[in-house]
Amino acid sequence: MATTRATWAYRDRFGDGFGRTYFRRFGPGVVSSIGLGTYLGDPTDAVDDDYERALIAGFEGGCNVVDTAVNYRCGRSERVVGRAIERADVDREAVVVATKGGFLPFDGERPADPTDYIREQFVDGGPVDPTDLAADYHCIAPDAIEALLDRSLDALGLETIDCYYVHNPETQLRARSREDVYDQLEATFERLERRVAAGDIGRYGVATWQAFRVPPEADAHLSLPEVAARARSAAATVGRAETGFEAIQLPFNVHMADAFTAEVHEFEGEYRSALSVAQTLDLDVFTSASLAQGDLLTGLPAAVDAELSGDTPAQRAINFARSAPAVTCALVGASDPDHVAEDVAAGTFDPLGARAFDAVFT
Fold first, then answer.
1. Does the global pTM surpass 0.90?
2. What number of other Cβ atoms are within 10 A of residue 28's Cβ?
3. Which domains does the chain have, with CATH numbers?
4. pLDDT tens, position by position, 187-226
5. Residues paired with 251 in a beta bridge
6. Confidence class of residue 319 from pLDDT cuts 50, 70 and 90?
7. Sign of the dihedral through C-alpha 149, 152, 157, 160
8. Residue 112 CB coordination number (10 Å)
């Protein structure tokens, strides 16, 4: 598990090479405000090798956050993360490892018949009740999430996962009511609270795509205040004084800024944005799609670009994402060592201050 001692030592090793607020508080320690993602890429040995080199370069270059998921690249991404941590010249306890469970994974490659594979591996005598499935491949019921968590621990080769996310819970809204999804999340949060107490995970949260950005009338909407309340209830049920629900992940970039601009969550008598609610609830926010999966590499809107520091469009886009209130870390893809060096170097420039960031939207 990442520790206070090791993450601060990591900050001391690299901090002088970066700008102000590059390292930020997270849990008992500190993390780089640029993190390494492992979503994109084919499930091949060649891509595995690229990721391993890139991750090692990131860890050894001042980035101590890595994000993955049990299903990414047919399960290969978690294995690569584990190998990179083992082989990099960094202390395991200096690196914050986040992964996710919800989408049922393949094992190394896409099977000829995915539906049959899911049924044989997870449903027939496995941890998944078919009535809990949505879209044929998504399940966040307690037994399923525990099984996926154990699978992730094995794949990563770690004793503890620092942050474990329930992955895209809004997918369940295709199959059941919003209230039923909240109930299922609360039941699963109870299991995760017990796993925090057991030391298998450091903390947990939810990773979303649409849920916290769309209005209440949208099919994919989930209320962040309600999800957080269900986590507090889960903690109380298992006898924990404080909840382990400490983080959320959502997309954020200059073209997908609705986590900041869209006031879609009823909270404390008014409607507020996801980032505003997260800030009030003291939740750490990790942004996905910080480069819009590559779309921002050619440049940002001129008015925004002019406000940002960085030598390249990628660096300025990353600095936009990590400038937003409540954002602890902006995630970027890590399949190319040269790109990782460029992306992490964005942290040598300062992000926008609060007033300057607000001014971009006025």
1. yes
2. 13
3. 4-360 (3.20.20.100)
4. 999 999 999 999 999 999 999 999 999 999 999 999 999 9
5. 288
6. very high
7. negative
8. 7
